[in-house]
Amino acid sequence: MMFFCAHLDFHDAPDRFGFTAIDQELQPFPGKKIRLIFGQRFQAQQSLFAGYIAPVDYFFYRLVCRQLGRKYDPHAHFQRAHEYGVRRFAFDTRIELEKLANLAPGAQVIGRVAVDNNGSHWPLERKFGIEPGQEVEHFLYARALGLEPYGLTFHVGSQNSDPQAWVRALERLSPIWNELEARGIQLQVIDTGGGFPVQFNDPVPGVEEIAAAILPAMQRLFGNKAKLLVEPGRGLVGNTGIMAATVINRATRGEREWLYLDVGAFQGLIEMLDFYGFNYPVISERNSEPLTPFVLSGPTCDSADVIKHQAMLPAGITLGDRVYVLTAGAYSNSMERYNGIDFPETIIVQKELVY
Ligand SMILES: Cc1ncc(COP(=O)(O)O)c(C=O)c1O
Residue 345 has what pLDDT? Predict the structure, then answer.
């Protein structure tokens, strides 16, 4: 099993992602140069969004997670991030505001607004976002706690193929922004989150098309008052990774041919499970034979660890052959320590048994 990260484009989609790379000296680490490299395509190109990519604070937070190690302690994480100079935090509950007021006093806060996630493959709308109608109240509370109301954010859901989803979200934000202004709170940024799609099989709108929807809507609704930030995830890195797996077994079970790989849902391909339903393309290094349908399974004993029900692969594929899972650059290797959070430590408690 291997994981490549490079400039690889199997869909012949030129210039789909043109974000400028982040490569700058981080103020909180004088003398230390930290490079965040997303592959050459991002470094080489300019785009409509150039300069608007989410600030370094967001990425920097991962370093904090790494430093603090095993135990996920949100308090320590907030505090350390703040000590290192992270000034902007997103929130969507009063409790988060209270935590910030204690651990990152004076922080700039960006409220996450719940928006409709229509058009996305993986909606995030139920789990996140201030309860609709309570946004202004939350910002008033933030101000009362000594925090600096700074902006609004949202997420249209991952892999969203409808550019109008961002427009609808901005329209939802506009009255909140205006009401806050009327109450004497002048926000400064709109962060349009992630959701930019990557091409698995069917064509998806490119970043230019989505930008062509977002930018005029920003102008129409916020004029020059709001600075725009974007937080692309999948759209930025999805097409830069390929999982190179090896066949470890093959079986005929009833009518179906099964192929077992040395990597599956628990080694980075979780989004290929039925529950997620992402249809990552799979190819083989053999390309001269007729194709036949296979059920593709991961190596574990879990019967759920089936990553594709109908993978068209060469009929003669067998033990030791390589199989490549394409477009696997996002939410794959990052699952090893997702969001920087370690697996819990095991503590064995010995008790005396009383008969
Ligand atoms: C707050 C936030 N921003 C951006 C992203 C990136 O989203 P995507 O990969 O859909 O672009 C995520 C992903 O979950 C997120 O939680």
Answer: 79
Asked whether residue 213 carries a pLDDT value surpassing 60, the answer given is: yes
CB-CB contact of 229 with 269 (8 Å): no
What are residue 91's DSSP bridge partners?
Answer: 111
* Residue where a domain terminates, one of 217, 237, 257: 237
Helix and strand counts by DSSP (H, E) for the chain: 8, 14
Q: How far apart are CA 184 and CA 186, in angstroms?
A: 6
Q: How far apart are the first and last CA of the chain?
A: 49
Tens digit of each residue's pLDDT (9 = 90 or more) over 287-328: 778 999 999 999 999 999 999 999 999 999 999 999 989 998
- What does the DSSP 8-state code read for residue 130? B
Residues 6+ positions from 187 with CB-CB distance below 8 Å: 149, 150, 151, 152, 177, 180, 181, 226
Domain boundary among 212, 237, 262: 237
Residues with CB under 6 A from ligand 1: 155, 158, 193-196, 231-235, 330
Probe target for ligand 1 pocket from 231, 234, 237, 271, with the most ligand atoms within 8 Å of CB: 231
pLDDT in tens, 130-145: 999 999 999 999 999 9
Same domain, 231 and 280: no
- What range does the domain containing 302 cover? 241-340
Q: Domain check: are 121 and 62 in the same one?
A: yes
Q: CB under 8 Å to 169, separation ≥6 — which residues?
A: 113, 115, 116, 154, 156, 192
Q: Do residue 179 and residue 314 come from a single domain? A: no
In a domain, 350, yes or no: no
Same domain, 129 and 262: no
Q: Annotated catalytic, 301?
A: yes
- Same domain for 225 and 318, yes or no, is no
Question: What CATH number is attached to the domain comprising 317?
Answer: 2.40.37.10
What is the pLDDT at residue 329? 87
Contact 198, 235 (CB under 8 A): yes
Total structural domains in the chain? 2
Closest-lying ligand 1 atom to the alpha carbon of residue 120: 10
